[in-house]
Amino acid sequence: MRKTARVWFFEVAHGNQTATWVNTLFDRKANRVQYVYVVPDTMVTVITLILTPRQRATHVAVRYERTSLSADANTAVRDMADHDNKAGPEWAAQINQFLARDSGS
């Protein structure tokens, strides 16, 4: 992760391209985090996380907004949106496994 002025960004392999991710919002008081990532000539994605404390747990609502940057990317963007709509339980399991490992439980 790199920081330039007040902007945090990092790069991630995305197929045969590189996606640049930027942390655009980190608001502890509002319990909101937002990232934007760009895959050149393919798509821009905005990911917003809203965290809500619930007793000894935290509920996380995730919203994806994707825009294709070319007509060739339209199908891939729709396919990713379909996957996102079904991925909540998978993501929850991955996060819970990480947290359990990290806490030594």
Which features would summarize this protein structure in a list?
alpha+beta; about 100 residues; about 30% helix
Amino-to-carboxy terminus distance: 28 Å
Residues in helices, as a percent range: 25-40%
Structural class: alpha+beta
Quote the beta fraction.
over 45%
Helix/strand order, N-terminal first: EEEEEEHH
* Total DSSP helices: 2
Largest sheet: 6 strands, antiparallel
Rg computed from alpha carbons, rounded to a whole number of angstroms: 16 Å
Overall 3D shape: globular
Give the strand order of the largest sheet, numbering strands 1, 2, ... along the chain. Answer: 1-2-3-4-5-6
What's the β-strand tally? Answer: 6
Summarize, please.
The chain is an alpha+beta fold and 105 residues long. It has helices at residues 74-86, 88-103; strands spanning 2-4, 7-14, 17-27, 32-39, 43-54, 57-68.
Description:
This protein has helices at residues 74-86, 88-103; strands spanning 2-4, 7-14, 17-27, 32-39, 43-54, 57-68. The protein has a six-stranded antiparallel β-sheet with strand order 1-2-3-4-5-6. The protein has one domain (2-103). The model has no long low-confidence stretch (mean pLDDT 87). It has 105 residues and is of the alpha+beta class. Strand 1 and strand 2 (7-14) form a beta hairpin. The longest helix has 16 residues, at 88-103. The radius of gyration is 16 Å and the shape is globular.
Produce the secondary structure layout.
Blueprint lengths: L1 E3 L2 E8 L2 E11 L4 E8 L3 E12 L2 E12 L5 H13 L1 H16 L2
Antiparallel strand pairs: 1-2, 2-3, 3-4, 4-5, 5-6
